[in-house]
Amino acid sequence: MKKVVFFAIILCAGCYTPLNNSGVATTKPWIEIPGKRVDFDGKQYDSCVQFKLRFWPQEAAQRLDLQKACVTACCWRSEGSEIVLDFNKNFEQELKEYGRARKYSPDKITLKVSHSNLVNVTRAAVSPRGAIKNNGLVKLSYKEVEDPKRLAQIARERELADQIRYQPMVVPTQAPGPSPVEKDTTVVVTTTTKKTVTLSPEINAARAKALVQNRVGTQIDTYFYQMNKTYRTQNALFMLSSRLFVPQLQADGSYLVTCHAKARTGIDAQHLNTSDFPCGVWYANLQTQTVRPYDKKAQQIAQ
Q1: Pairing status of strand 108-116 against strand 121-127
Q2: Confidence band of 194 (pLDDT split at 50, 70, 90)
Protein backbone atom coordinates (compact mmCIF):
# COMPACT_ATOMS: atom_id res chain seq x y z
CA MET A 1 0.00 0.00 0.00
CA LYS A 2 2.84 2.39 0.85
CA LYS A 3 4.42 1.76 -2.55
CA VAL A 4 1.15 2.60 -4.29
CA VAL A 5 0.87 5.90 -2.40
CA PHE A 6 4.52 6.71 -3.12
CA PHE A 7 4.15 6.19 -6.87
CA ALA A 8 0.90 8.17 -6.83
CA ILE A 9 2.76 11.13 -5.29
CA ILE A 10 5.45 10.91 -7.97
CA LEU A 11 2.80 10.76 -10.70
CA CYS A 12 1.01 13.82 -9.31
CA ALA A 13 4.27 15.74 -9.07
CA GLY A 14 4.94 15.05 -12.72
CA CYS A 15 1.42 16.11 -13.71
CA TYR A 16 1.42 19.48 -11.95
CA THR A 17 4.92 20.70 -12.74
CA PRO A 18 5.74 22.09 -16.18
CA LEU A 19 8.51 20.44 -18.15
CA ASN A 20 11.27 22.55 -19.72
CA ASN A 21 13.19 21.91 -22.93
CA SER A 22 15.78 20.09 -20.85
CA GLY A 23 13.14 17.65 -19.60
CA VAL A 24 13.32 18.95 -16.01
CA ALA A 25 10.08 19.78 -14.20
CA THR A 26 9.71 22.95 -12.12
CA THR A 27 7.24 23.99 -9.45
CA LYS A 28 6.61 27.45 -10.96
CA PRO A 29 5.97 28.50 -14.58
CA TRP A 30 8.53 31.32 -14.24
CA ILE A 31 11.37 28.87 -13.49
CA GLU A 32 13.13 27.64 -16.62
CA ILE A 33 15.96 25.13 -17.03
CA PRO A 34 17.75 25.90 -20.34
CA GLY A 35 20.46 23.32 -19.67
CA LYS A 36 21.66 20.56 -17.37
CA ARG A 37 24.72 18.44 -16.64
CA VAL A 38 24.52 14.67 -16.22
CA ASP A 39 26.99 12.00 -15.14
CA PHE A 40 27.90 8.76 -16.93
CA ASP A 41 24.72 7.11 -15.66
CA GLY A 42 22.56 9.89 -17.07
CA LYS A 43 21.73 11.32 -13.64
CA GLN A 44 21.58 15.08 -13.32
CA TYR A 45 24.12 16.64 -10.96
CA ASP A 46 23.76 20.28 -12.04
CA SER A 47 21.32 22.50 -13.93
CA CYS A 48 21.22 26.05 -15.27
CA VAL A 49 18.28 27.93 -13.78
CA GLN A 50 16.69 31.08 -15.21
CA PHE A 51 13.86 33.16 -13.75
CA LYS A 52 11.38 34.69 -16.21
CA LEU A 53 10.39 37.61 -14.00
CA ARG A 54 8.61 40.90 -14.66
CA PHE A 55 8.92 43.90 -12.38
CA TRP A 56 6.48 46.61 -11.41
CA PRO A 57 7.37 49.38 -11.31
CA GLN A 58 9.75 48.64 -14.18
CA GLU A 59 12.37 51.05 -12.79
CA ALA A 60 13.00 48.61 -9.93
CA ALA A 61 14.82 46.30 -12.35
CA GLN A 62 17.45 49.01 -12.89
CA ARG A 63 18.65 48.46 -9.31
CA LEU A 64 19.57 44.85 -10.17
CA ASP A 65 22.27 43.13 -12.14
CA LEU A 66 19.80 41.07 -14.15
CA GLN A 67 22.46 38.66 -15.33
CA LYS A 68 23.64 37.84 -11.80
CA ALA A 69 19.99 37.68 -10.73
CA CYS A 70 19.50 34.88 -13.31
CA VAL A 71 16.84 36.89 -15.16
CA THR A 72 18.54 37.63 -18.49
CA ALA A 73 20.80 34.56 -18.33
CA CYS A 74 20.69 31.19 -16.58
CA CYS A 75 22.86 30.41 -13.55
CA TRP A 76 24.34 27.03 -12.65
CA ARG A 77 23.17 25.71 -9.29
CA SER A 78 26.68 24.53 -8.48
CA GLU A 79 27.88 28.16 -8.55
CA GLY A 80 25.36 29.26 -5.95
CA SER A 81 21.89 28.03 -5.05
CA GLU A 82 20.81 31.26 -3.31
CA ILE A 83 20.02 34.39 -5.35
CA VAL A 84 19.27 37.73 -3.67
CA LEU A 85 17.40 40.51 -5.46
CA ASP A 86 18.47 43.67 -3.58
CA PHE A 87 16.27 46.55 -4.75
CA ASN A 88 17.78 49.13 -2.37
CA LYS A 89 21.44 48.37 -3.01
CA ASN A 90 22.13 51.73 -4.70
CA PHE A 91 19.56 53.76 -2.78
CA GLU A 92 22.04 55.87 -0.77
CA GLN A 93 24.19 56.55 -3.83
CA GLU A 94 21.23 57.70 -5.94
CA LEU A 95 19.96 59.92 -3.13
CA LYS A 96 23.38 61.56 -2.83
CA GLU A 97 23.78 62.10 -6.58
CA TYR A 98 20.24 63.03 -7.62
CA GLY A 99 18.69 64.37 -4.41
CA ARG A 100 15.79 61.97 -4.84
CA ALA A 101 15.56 58.17 -4.83
CA ARG A 102 13.03 55.40 -4.41
CA LYS A 103 13.06 53.09 -1.42
CA TYR A 104 11.42 49.79 -2.31
CA SER A 105 9.58 47.28 -0.17
CA PRO A 106 10.36 44.48 0.20
CA ASP A 107 13.95 45.67 0.00
CA LYS A 108 15.24 42.16 -0.78
CA ILE A 109 13.81 38.98 -2.26
CA THR A 110 15.73 35.74 -1.72
CA LEU A 111 15.36 32.68 -3.94
CA LYS A 112 16.80 29.34 -2.80
CA VAL A 113 16.98 26.78 -5.60
CA SER A 114 16.92 23.04 -4.97
CA HIS A 115 16.50 19.97 -7.15
CA SER A 116 15.21 16.48 -6.42
CA ASN A 117 16.65 13.74 -8.60
CA LEU A 118 14.04 11.38 -7.20
CA VAL A 119 11.12 13.17 -8.88
CA ASN A 120 13.25 15.26 -11.31
CA VAL A 121 11.79 18.54 -10.05
CA THR A 122 13.52 21.90 -9.50
CA ARG A 123 12.09 24.21 -6.86
CA ALA A 124 12.72 27.79 -5.78
CA ALA A 125 11.77 28.84 -2.26
CA VAL A 126 10.91 32.56 -2.19
CA SER A 127 11.38 34.82 0.82
CA PRO A 128 9.37 36.79 1.75
CA ARG A 129 6.63 34.38 0.83
CA GLY A 130 4.34 35.57 -1.95
CA ALA A 131 6.78 38.24 -3.18
CA ILE A 132 6.71 36.66 -6.65
CA LYS A 133 3.32 35.95 -8.23
CA ASN A 134 2.63 32.68 -9.99
CA ASN A 135 2.93 34.45 -13.37
CA GLY A 136 6.39 35.79 -12.50
CA LEU A 137 5.31 39.32 -11.55
CA VAL A 138 7.38 41.02 -8.84
CA LYS A 139 5.20 43.87 -7.58
CA LEU A 140 6.89 46.28 -5.19
CA SER A 141 5.71 49.23 -3.17
CA TYR A 142 7.94 52.26 -2.70
CA LYS A 143 8.25 55.76 -1.31
CA GLU A 144 10.11 58.71 -2.78
CA VAL A 145 12.84 59.97 -0.45
CA GLU A 146 14.20 63.48 -1.06
CA ASP A 147 17.23 65.48 0.05
CA PRO A 148 16.12 69.16 -0.15
CA LYS A 149 19.68 70.53 0.02
CA ARG A 150 20.87 68.36 -2.85
CA LEU A 151 17.80 69.21 -4.95
CA ALA A 152 18.44 72.93 -4.41
CA GLN A 153 22.07 72.48 -5.47
CA ILE A 154 21.03 70.63 -8.63
CA ALA A 155 18.54 73.39 -9.46
CA ARG A 156 21.25 76.05 -9.14
CA GLU A 157 23.62 74.05 -11.35
CA ARG A 158 20.94 73.55 -13.96
CA GLU A 159 20.11 77.26 -14.02
CA LEU A 160 23.77 78.14 -14.50
CA ALA A 161 24.12 75.56 -17.28
CA ASP A 162 21.18 77.13 -19.11
CA GLN A 163 22.83 80.55 -18.93
CA ILE A 164 26.36 79.52 -19.92
CA ARG A 165 27.02 77.34 -22.93
CA TYR A 166 30.53 78.32 -23.89
CA GLN A 167 33.22 80.74 -22.75
CA PRO A 168 36.76 80.77 -24.27
CA MET A 169 39.62 79.75 -22.02
CA VAL A 170 42.21 82.06 -23.66
CA VAL A 171 42.00 85.74 -24.63
CA PRO A 172 44.75 86.85 -27.08
CA THR A 173 46.28 90.37 -26.74
CA GLN A 174 48.65 91.84 -29.33
CA ALA A 175 51.89 93.39 -28.09
CA PRO A 176 53.39 96.44 -29.88
CA GLY A 177 56.07 95.62 -32.51
CA PRO A 178 59.72 96.71 -32.21
CA SER A 179 61.04 99.93 -33.74
CA PRO A 180 62.34 99.64 -37.34
CA VAL A 181 65.96 98.56 -37.77
CA GLU A 182 68.28 100.75 -39.95
CA LYS A 183 69.43 99.56 -43.40
CA ASP A 184 67.36 98.07 -46.19
CA THR A 185 67.00 94.71 -44.39
CA THR A 186 64.31 96.05 -42.15
CA VAL A 187 62.28 93.30 -40.49
CA VAL A 188 59.12 94.09 -38.57
CA VAL A 189 58.33 91.42 -35.98
CA THR A 190 54.92 91.10 -34.36
CA THR A 191 54.56 88.95 -31.24
CA THR A 192 51.45 87.63 -29.60
CA THR A 193 51.10 86.90 -25.94
CA LYS A 194 48.36 84.87 -24.31
CA LYS A 195 46.55 85.85 -21.20
CA THR A 196 45.17 82.87 -19.33
CA VAL A 197 41.75 83.36 -17.85
CA THR A 198 40.93 81.27 -14.80
CA LEU A 199 37.27 80.31 -14.81
CA SER A 200 35.30 79.59 -11.67
CA PRO A 201 34.43 75.97 -10.79
CA GLU A 202 30.76 76.75 -11.44
CA ILE A 203 31.47 77.92 -14.99
CA ASN A 204 33.67 74.91 -15.78
CA ALA A 205 31.01 72.58 -14.39
CA ALA A 206 28.41 74.24 -16.59
CA ARG A 207 30.68 73.88 -19.63
CA ALA A 208 31.16 70.17 -18.87
CA LYS A 209 27.39 69.65 -18.75
CA ALA A 210 26.91 71.57 -21.99
CA LEU A 211 29.61 69.47 -23.66
CA VAL A 212 27.86 66.22 -22.69
CA GLN A 213 24.51 67.55 -23.88
CA ASN A 214 25.96 68.55 -27.24
CA ARG A 215 27.89 65.31 -27.80
CA VAL A 216 25.51 62.57 -26.59
CA GLY A 217 22.17 64.32 -26.09
CA THR A 218 20.69 62.68 -29.19
CA GLN A 219 21.75 59.20 -28.08
CA ILE A 220 20.19 59.76 -24.66
CA ASP A 221 16.95 60.89 -26.30
CA THR A 222 16.96 57.73 -28.43
CA TYR A 223 17.40 55.60 -25.31
CA PHE A 224 14.32 57.12 -23.68
CA TYR A 225 12.38 56.82 -26.94
CA GLN A 226 13.01 53.06 -26.88
CA MET A 227 12.00 52.94 -23.21
CA ASN A 228 8.73 54.67 -24.11
CA LYS A 229 8.06 52.01 -26.77
CA THR A 230 8.65 49.28 -24.16
CA TYR A 231 6.09 50.85 -21.82
CA ARG A 232 3.56 51.13 -24.64
CA THR A 233 3.86 47.42 -25.46
CA GLN A 234 2.82 46.74 -21.85
CA ASN A 235 -0.10 49.21 -22.07
CA ALA A 236 1.60 51.61 -19.66
CA LEU A 237 2.51 55.29 -19.88
CA PHE A 238 5.98 56.84 -19.89
CA MET A 239 6.08 60.64 -20.00
CA LEU A 240 9.58 62.14 -20.00
CA SER A 241 9.68 65.66 -18.55
CA SER A 242 13.33 66.70 -18.12
CA ARG A 243 16.96 65.61 -18.03
CA LEU A 244 19.49 66.64 -15.40
CA PHE A 245 23.28 66.54 -15.59
CA VAL A 246 25.38 66.54 -12.40
CA PRO A 247 29.14 67.15 -12.88
CA GLN A 248 31.91 66.04 -10.54
CA LEU A 249 35.41 67.50 -10.91
CA GLN A 250 38.24 64.95 -11.13
CA ALA A 251 41.87 65.31 -10.05
CA ASP A 252 43.09 65.77 -13.65
CA GLY A 253 40.65 68.61 -14.34
CA SER A 254 38.19 66.47 -16.28
CA TYR A 255 34.59 65.86 -15.21
CA LEU A 256 32.34 62.89 -14.60
CA VAL A 257 28.85 64.02 -15.55
CA THR A 258 25.99 61.93 -14.16
CA CYS A 259 22.81 62.03 -16.23
CA HIS A 260 19.35 61.30 -14.92
CA ALA A 261 15.88 62.16 -16.14
CA LYS A 262 12.49 62.81 -14.62
CA ALA A 263 9.49 61.02 -16.01
CA ARG A 264 5.92 60.19 -15.03
CA THR A 265 4.94 56.55 -15.31
CA GLY A 266 1.83 54.54 -14.56
CA ILE A 267 -0.81 52.16 -15.84
CA ASP A 268 -2.98 55.08 -17.05
CA ALA A 269 -3.26 58.88 -16.89
CA GLN A 270 -5.05 58.73 -13.54
CA HIS A 271 -2.27 56.74 -11.86
CA LEU A 272 1.01 58.49 -12.66
CA ASN A 273 4.06 58.70 -10.41
CA THR A 274 7.13 60.88 -10.84
CA SER A 275 10.32 58.84 -11.09
CA ASP A 276 14.04 59.31 -11.72
CA PHE A 277 15.75 57.30 -14.48
CA PRO A 278 19.56 57.08 -14.74
CA CYS A 279 21.01 57.78 -18.18
CA GLY A 280 24.67 57.10 -17.59
CA VAL A 281 27.84 58.60 -16.20
CA TRP A 282 29.91 60.37 -18.87
CA TYR A 283 33.57 61.40 -18.89
CA ALA A 284 33.99 64.96 -20.22
CA ASN A 285 37.34 66.56 -21.06
CA LEU A 286 37.13 70.32 -21.55
CA GLN A 287 40.64 70.58 -23.01
CA THR A 288 40.07 68.08 -25.83
CA GLN A 289 36.30 68.68 -26.01
CA THR A 290 35.65 64.93 -25.91
CA VAL A 291 33.00 62.83 -24.19
CA ARG A 292 33.03 59.07 -23.62
CA PRO A 293 30.88 56.62 -21.60
CA TYR A 294 32.12 55.88 -18.08
CA ASP A 295 29.69 53.32 -16.63
CA LYS A 296 27.64 50.39 -17.99
CA LYS A 297 24.49 52.46 -18.50
CA ALA A 298 26.40 55.03 -20.58
CA GLN A 299 27.99 52.22 -22.61
CA GLN A 300 24.54 50.78 -23.26
CA ILE A 301 23.27 54.16 -24.48
CA ALA A 302 26.35 54.84 -26.62
CA GLN A 303 26.04 51.56 -28.56
Answers
A1: antiparallel
A2: very low
